[in-house]
């Protein structure tokens, strides 16, 4: 059962588990080039009038580089070294998905999905250099799941100007919903601002907390949480008593946590990511401070949470929109069984199928496949229009009651429904929480519905 909670921690509501489905129109390759559906001059045969993207607005437009009769070439940049290297496991999930599609589904209409990846160490300047090389030297059709808010911000003006699709970026910044200003860029996960609003709602509806302390990464990733949280608590009894920041390459966050602990705030918002996630909660535990704590959804992988000391993360709250491969309640789930079987078969050696990062990667592989298949033709323009018109797309490991939705009428936030979760140190996984803040029985979800509201909660 799925409880839809309308964005507040209400006690009732439930909708049934929906079937996995694919939506959209399908491609017509009868006219023009068989691989791209483009005419002899390379222009799209599709009438783009009224569409979200318009190649005429761009500095240059190449309709279908990286697309042949046998291949669709995608490119990505993400940390494969450094303090954020754990996020490289995401690629294990979508690599397995692409290999599965190539081997068992004959690719996309006979074209194999191939991938070119580069390591940026989570350094924005390296990401920009990598993207330049992917587009200009490797000739990729589109960028896919580039990790990091500052990393994408480093180049997204350029790729939008050049009409290069930046598909399903691996960050939840509110920037990725800018359909008018940056229509060639689209996100993949719930907005960090929406997460912050969920925690604000939780504190005001379910607790007596009045004071909150915040630790945030000192960039647009961290700012998204802090600004949205401060907006969400306006007019409430909650007060942010201190905000501490850290640089993404800082060796630790002990001094910042010590300062926050000295406030003895009732609640803590952790706008942290990568190895700073377990480090933060180790420092909180060592300080003796025991706040009601929320951590960024980017931290919920067992690869990160598992690095914290025993007991340090018990009871922390976060959100998700995907089934946890570690949770036995999904063992008989058809989508989970397919995921575990095919990742074991097609994933890189040593891939941990229980890692939620791998599950996210698998789901993103399924989502980009959907956008490619449902495009009217294999051109950059048509695929972006497909990505901006997702209708109740339930692929990969999405939780019951959650689907990917976008609208060419102005809403390009891909996921606006979330499930609240709480870490159970004994089981070493996150339990799903109901509207009353209690752990749900197996098979039930309680979906917090912010559909169409992400722009409203953004700070």
Overall description:
Helix content is 30%, strand content 15%. It has 459 residues and is of the alpha/beta class. It has two domains: 20-190 and 331-416, Rossmann fold (3-Layer(aba) Sandwich), CATH 3.40.50; 192-320, Response regulator (Rossmann fold, 3-Layer(aba) Sandwich), CATH 3.40.50. Strands 1, 10, 11, 12 and 13 form a five-stranded mixed beta sheet that branches. α6 links the parallel β6 and β7. The chain is globular and about 60 Å long. Mean pLDDT is 90; it is low at 10-49.
SSE layout:
Elements: E1 2-4, E2 71-78, H1 89-104, E3 112-119, H2 124-136, E4 142-144, H3 149-153, H4 156-161, E5 166-167, H5 192-206, E6 211-217, H6 220-232, E7 239-246, H7 254-261, E8 267-271, H8 276-287, E9 292-295, H9 302-305, E10 317-320, H10 334-346, H11 356-374, H12 380-387, E11 417-424, E12 429-432, E13 445-449, H13 454-457
Parallel strand pairs: 1-13, 2-3, 2-4, 4-5, 6-7, 6-8, 8-9
Antiparallel strand pairs: 10-11, 11-12, 11-13
């Amino acid at each position: 059962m799925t409880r839809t909670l309308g964005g507040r921690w209400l006690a009732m509501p439930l909708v049934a588990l929906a079937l996995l489905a694919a939506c959209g129109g399908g491609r017509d390759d009868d006219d023009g080039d068989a691989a791209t559906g483009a005419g002899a001059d390379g222009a799209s045969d599709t009438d783009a009038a009224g569409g979200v993207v318009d190649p005429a607005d761009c500095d240059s437009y190449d309709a279908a580089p990286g697309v042949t009769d046998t291949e669709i070439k995608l490119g990505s940049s993400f940390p494969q070294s450094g303090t954020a290297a754990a996020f490289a496991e995401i690629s294990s999930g979508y690599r397995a998905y692409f290999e599965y599609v190539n081997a068992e589904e004959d690719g996309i209409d006979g074209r194999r999905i191939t991938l070119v990846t580069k390591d940026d160490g989570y350094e924005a300047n390296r990401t920009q250099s990598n993207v330049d090389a992917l587009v200009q030297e490797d000739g990729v059709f589109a960028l896919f799941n580039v990790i990091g808010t500052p990393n994408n911000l480093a180049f997204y003006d350029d790729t939008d100007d050049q009409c290069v699709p930046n598909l399903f970026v691996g960050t939840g910044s509110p920037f990725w919903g800018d359909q008018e200003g940056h229509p060639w860029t689209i996100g993949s996960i719930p907005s960090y601002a929406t997460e912050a609003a969920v925690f604000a709602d939780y504190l005001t509806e379910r607790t007596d907390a009045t004071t909150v302390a915040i630790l945030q990464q000192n960039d647009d990733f961290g700012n998204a949480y802090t600004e949205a949280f401060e907006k969400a608590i306006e007019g409430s009894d909650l007060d942010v008593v201190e905000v501490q920041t850290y640089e993404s390459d800082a060796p630790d966050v002990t001094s910042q946590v010590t300062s926050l602990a000295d406030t003895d705030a009732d609640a803590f918002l952790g706008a942290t990511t990568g190895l700073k996630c377990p480090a933060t909660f180790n420092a909180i535990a060592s300080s003796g401070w025991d706040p009601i704590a929320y951590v960024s959804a980017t931290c919920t992988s067992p690869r990160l949470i598992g690095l914290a000391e025993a007991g340090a993360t018990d009871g922390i709250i976060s959100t998700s929109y995907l089934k946890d491969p570690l949770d036995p309640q999904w063992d008989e789930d058809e989508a989970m069984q397919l995921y575990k079987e095919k990742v074991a078969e097609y994933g890189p050696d040593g891939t941990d199928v229980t890692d939620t990062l791998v599950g996210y990667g698998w789901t993103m592989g399924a989502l980009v496949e959907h956008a490619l298949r449902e495009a009217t033709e294999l051109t950059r323009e048509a695929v972006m229009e497909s990505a901006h018109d997702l209708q109740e797309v339930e692929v990969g490991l999405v939780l019951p009651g959650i689907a990917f939705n976008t609208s060419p009428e102005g809403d390009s936030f891909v996921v606006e429904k979330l499930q609240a979760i709480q870490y159970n140190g004994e089981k070493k996984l996150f339990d799903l929480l109901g509207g009353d803040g209690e752990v749900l029985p197996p098979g039930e979800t309680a979906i917090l519905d912010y559909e169409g509201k992400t722009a409203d909660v953004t700070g």
